[in-house]
Amino acid sequence: MARCRKCRRKKADVFIPHHRLPLCEEHFLEWFEEYLARTVKKFKMFSPKAKILVAISGGKDSLVLWKALNNLGYHTEGLFVDLGIEDFSLISRRVAENFAEELDRPLHVVSIAKEIGLTIPDLKSRTKKYCSLCGSIKRYFFNRFARQNNFDVLVTGHNLDDEASSLLSNTINWQLKYLARKYPVLPEGNGFVRKAKPLCRFTAFEIKEYARLQKIEYLTERCPLSPEATRLVYAELMDELEEKMPGTKIRFYMDYLRKVYPIFNKQVEDFLDRPLTQCEFCGEPAVSSPCFVCKLKAEAKA
Ligand code: FES
Ligand code: ZN
Ligand code: ZN
């Protein structure tokens, strides 16, 4: 492999294809954190003093994000939502807790079995839509925890591969509501906290390399319950395009943000379709009252 572009001394450990950048271990880690800081600044995600809640799953993205933000000196705490998916939840929780201990930062845990009285496997036996319901449940608890505990922003580990493939899927299906949400930072309002995706310009490969060099132990298993079939088709398509034309993902995504997103931006609140009412039981923003979580709670008790 070539020499590191930065020090020109050491052998390169990592080659970043779409930046055409060979870097040694030290300078790759430095590049990664600098690029992260620049992404935060570029999209005005949060200030250096912000109190940040990191949504932790135990996978590479959330742990890498937590580590890198912590190294940059931000005030961070983690939140893990325990979905009660048997071994999968047990193992991911353990991975997250071990990591938090090593990082010496607090990890909060919300268990949906305790909160709602139901687990995701329970929901699976009741509805085919359990997977998207699971996504909504996670968003509900992340938002509620962040707001109730005065965090300035909730950050998630979505990376460039995720953003580019869901952008492709949302475009092919013209899902305007989702497209309007695609921006890497969403403002607070109507009971929702500010949200940001600081890894949106990093590929899964770069994140894996950061995890490898920082010796981060993360969970590689995917949730055994999520039917991934369609999501994977778009991800594979994007990977194929990227392989044939390196830089496609970042161009597709950044050009969307630069050229197309401003069209939504003017009316983003309309497109975001944020619920206007509040649940009379839990106080969370909701389409109608009781909200979907309080309905589930009542069902669990029945
Ligand atoms: Fe929600 Fe698997 S993580 S269904
Ligand atoms: Zn170097
Ligand atoms: Zn409610």
UniProtKB/TrEMBL annotation:
Zn(2+) 2 binds at C279, C282, C291, C294. One of its GO terms (biological process) is tRNA wobble position uridine thiolation. GO terms for cellular component: cytosolic tRNA wobble base thiouridylase complex. It comes from the Bacteria. Residues 3-29 form the 2-thiouridine synthetase TtuA-like N-terminal LIM domain. Gene3D superfamilies: HUPs. Residues 51-220 form the tRNA(Ile)-lysidine/2-thiocytidine synthase N-terminal domain. It holds the Pfam family ATP_bind_3. Zn(2+) 1 binds at C4, C7, C24, H27. GO terms for molecular function: ATP binding; metal ion binding; transferase activity; tRNA binding. Keywords: ATP-binding, Metal-binding, Nucleotide-binding, Transferase, Zinc. ATP binds at A55, I56, S57, D61, V81, G157, D162. This is PP-loop domain protein. It comes from Thermodesulfatator indicus (strain DSM 15286 / JCM 11887 / CIR29812).
